[in-house]
Automatic annotation (TrEMBL):
Residues 1-18 form the signal peptide. The chain crosses the membrane at residues 558-580. It is an enzyme of class 2 (transferase). GO terms for cellular component: membrane. Residues 630-701 form the Protein kinase domain. It is found in: Membrane. It comes from Actinidia chinensis var. chinensis (Chinese soft-hair kiwi). This is non-specific serine/threonine protein kinase. InterPro entries: Kinase-like_dom_sf, Leu-rich_rpt, LRR_dom_sf, LRR_N_plant-typ, Prot_kinase_dom, Protein_kinase_ATP_BS, Ser-Thr/Tyr_kinase_cat_dom.
Amino acid sequence: MAMAIICLLCFLAFCTEIQWIASVTDPGDVVALRSLKDQWKNTPPSWDKSGDPCGAPWEGVACNNSRVTALGLSTMGLIGKLNGDIGGLTELRSLDLSFNRGLTGSLSSRIGDLQKLSILILAGCGFSGEIPNELGNLAELSFLALNSNNFTGKIPASLGSLSKLYWLDLADNQLIGSIPVSTFTSPGLDLLKKAKHFHFNKNQLSGTIPSKLFSSDMVLIHVLFDGNQIRGEIPDTLGLVETLEVLRLDRNALTGDVPSNLNNLTNIVELNLAHNNLFGPLPNLAGMNSLSYVDLSNNSFQSSEAPTWFSNLQSLTTLVIEFGSLQGALPQKLFSLPQIQQVKLRSNAFNDTLNMGNSISQELQLVDLQNNRISTVTLGSGYKNTLILIGNPVCTSALANTEYCQLQQQTAKAYSTSLANCGSKSCSPEQNLNPQSCDCAYPYEGTFYFRAPSFRELSNANMFHSLEMSLWMKLGLTPGSVSLQNPFFNIDDYLQVQLELFPSTGKYFNRTEIVRLGFALSNQTYKPPPEFGPYYFIASPYLFPDEHGSTSISSITMIGIASGGGILVLVLVGLGVYAFRQKKRAEIAIGLSKPFASWVPSGKDSGGAPQLKGARWFSYVELKKCTSHFSESNEIGSGGYGKVYRGLLPGGQLVAIKRAQQGSRQGGLEFKTEIELLSRVHHKNVVGLVGFCFEQGEQML
């Protein structure tokens, strides 16, 4: 028996060797792929076989005339580095390794050898170090996405040589220095005449915005420079790029007057200049009739009355000018604009009478005029939603005891895909309910980050239904097999939405389907409804069937089992121990993901997450960021429970954050009860609860 097994194994090995010799794939490509396979963990099962990469084929590998032309392994859970052997795939046109956080280390300069590459997507990985100058050698490159990594150093000037590039996304890294423009001896980004997207937000870029960066022959539609350390004035050449639709320069250190020709940009939908040091007159936005969202908060503009464009921008949904110097009366027409949803003008100097008129838009949900100088209010009969007047003189007299002069929480609940048709059915921790079939399955999950949506009202079911419909139609899924959960505006003022996509049949997507979905969402093949604006997507790791314990048994394994009963017993004992440990790990994981439920005594109803009146959950990362990493300079108090920190939320709201210390933390049920009670307390002498954090062992209010 043993001799027969040995002979069989030798025969299989001989056949494998013959198969490699007879490979139809170019030998150089085979060597490069095998080197990558040796460097990476969690490659697809087909890569573990000795078949031909093009002939077998290997999952994620596409070929033409025996040459590898595309390598797509999005969301495979790869772990390792991208070594120099990638340069051996000289016919490669598309390389997509997005959403593999385990891919780390620096990018090899040999990536510049891929002379025919047109698509390079490394979004959502863990790469670090400087972006190689050799990327400038990729003359055919049209799509470059390096966002959401850990890249450092400067933006290479060599990227200006990529004359065919239309998408450039370097956002959410740690890049420093100024934005490079061309000189007599060096290229620069001003040469990218076909580029439509400059996404450089959430880095550490400094210096000024070069005047030379923009020109009238550019076709840019998205300029996203928010969340950097850029200083100096906004160049007036920006007003020459009349194709612009989204301009975000917020959260920088810009100074000076806003260019007077900015209103040449009549296609702009979102304009955000908040949180800078801009001065001079308030920008004149007259004629910018496509504008939907405007934020000019936290600058130092000259005192003035409300400009005439307040009343004339018919597409406006959201007007935000907080901590400004506007004065006088607010025009009635502002509140009757047909699309207006939110007016946020707190901490200005508006005075006189507030009269919203009798033709108030049905879309209007929020008017926040806290801390102005309004002395009288004439309320029309057409407005029943949130009006906040705290801190105005009118709240010391006529309206002192009304809801308008008390801290209010918006009562409209943010949209989530309904599971009402599924009744009380539940699934195991790793599975979720498919809203279309109510079956338990393993969805493809991740987070949408919409960088500039044209709306702010999160309870609008029609808006989110259109997003669901576009996802299942454009991604080729079964109607109804999309779930959207927990939309909110995060600390970067991006609309963040949890996404789940469910397989049309069975419980799992196969690897080919995962690669297809990952590519559609990373390559921007999928386009959401226009109201959602530019986005990026970060996928969660996907567990494939073979990673859930589903296996097949070969004939050799059967022979081994038949001849090794003793080994089988040992294996079963080992599996029992492993299963016990995995069960414990799963229980711990469930406790971490559902912290409130994990503290409930046996037999009692946990009630799930707290039932809140307006307060919301904050992530640990959000609170860490708004307190500058819980710096001592932001510490404003301490006691036996822990410390209190000053925090600044993205909209400019100043908050106090109570952080419990080790040893003083409550059980989950007690913490949940405290949150629910505080969220219901509304009194002029009691600080209102904005939200809470309960993750990573932290309890914060």
